[in-house]
Amino acid sequence: MDLAAQKERAVAFVLQMNAPDPAVLAELIADDFEFEFMMRAPGVKAQKHDEFLKWFPKIMKSWFPNGLNMKVHTIVAEGPHVAIQAEADTMAGNGKRYANRYHFYIRFEGGRIAQAREYNDTNHVRETFFPAAPEKAQN
């Protein structure tokens, strides 16, 4: 697959975050696909192919019922690697405004995506979806 085709498929993958369709995602990703949010937090782990196809559309539709309104900006490709800079601006399912910037690293094997890593402002994710518990009054 040439670089232009890889870029096109990588962008299609990123834009799936607007309205994830498991059938479309399944066509884009390899059987040994792995998706990883690049953050350390309880419960956050890499998702393998079947787990990703089951979990990702559900969580995205729950957190972002109107989609992310993802806009792709810069795309760079070399060899089997594609890097994408993008941003989202939407209302989260909890009623809070969500405006985040992203960097995606996508690696191809053959014509399919074998690995995707998402880098974003994790503090913004925490503030939007995991507000801190109120501090206990000290005696």
Give a nutshell description of this structure.
Helices cover 31% and strands 37% of the residues.
Task: Please provide a written account of the structure.
- This protein is 31% helix and 37% strand.
- It is globular and about 45 Å long.
- It has helices at 3-15, 22-28, 49-63, 122-129; strands at 29-37, 47-48, 71-78, 81-91, 97-109, 112-120.
- Strand 3 (71-78) and strand 4 form a beta hairpin.
- The model has no long low-confidence stretch (mean pLDDT 90).
- A 6-stranded mixed sheet has the order 2-1-6-5-4-3.
- It has 139 residues and is an alpha+beta fold.
- Can you count the helices? 4
Mean pLDDT: 90
How much of the residues is beta strand, in percent? 35-45%
Task: Output the structural class.
Answer: alpha+beta
Summarize the helix and strand pattern as letters: HHEEHEEEEH
Shape descriptor reads: globular
DSSP summary, beta strand count: 6
Quote the distance from N terminus to C terminus: 66 Å
Widest sheet, order of strands: 2-1-6-5-4-3
Main beta-sheet annotation:
6 strands, mixed
Radius of gyration: 16 Å
Residues in helix, %? 25-40%
Poorly predicted runs of 5 or more residues: none
